[in-house]
Amino acid sequence: MKVFRSTPRALVAVALLVAGTAVLGAHMKLEKSEPAADAVVAAPPATVQLFFSEEPDLKVSDLEIKGPGKVTLASVEAVEKSLKASLRGDVADGAYIVSWRAAGKDGHIQKGEVSFTVKRK
Ligand SMILES: [Cu+2]
Asked: What gap in Å lies between CA 10 and CA 5, rounded to an integer?
């Protein structure tokens, strides 16, 4: 039963590979945002800011917004471990989606979305 004898060693090798990848490949992660994910805000925010687990590389990072109004994000900047941008245009009531793309030290581009709703009282 050669197959069975070699299996544990193969499993250990795979386990080490997975563990090594997990340590080396700690991709940058989104940790929180302003407005917070799924927040309902009573006034249009002046800026959106996404906070990551490490400093984003601005050369490969970007933010975009989609929503009911004619809104764009201006002057995306990296502020320590975050990306921050100003909202420009008519921020109507409704649901907005901020799409982000960012990479940290390892250069792996990560992507995601954060949505929030503007609902004036
Ligand atoms: Cu990575």
From this structure: 10
- Please state, for a pLDDT cut of 70, what percent of the chain lies above it: 79
Whole-number Å distance, alpha carbon 111 to ligand 1 midpoint, is 12
Query: Buried b vs exposed e over 93-116: b needs ≥16 C-beta within 10 Å?
Result: eeebebebebbbeeeeebeeebbb
Can you give the pTM of this predicted structure? 0.79
User: Per-residue pLDDT tens for 30-70?
Assistant: 999 999 999 999 999 999 999 999 999 999 999 999 999 88
pLDDT in tens, 90-110: 999 999 999 999 999 999 999
From the CA of 28, how far away is ligand 1's center (Å)? 6
Token code pair at residue 54: 């490490």
- Given CATH 2.60.40.1220, say whether it is the number of domain 27-118: yes
121 CA distance to ligand 1 centroid (A)? 42
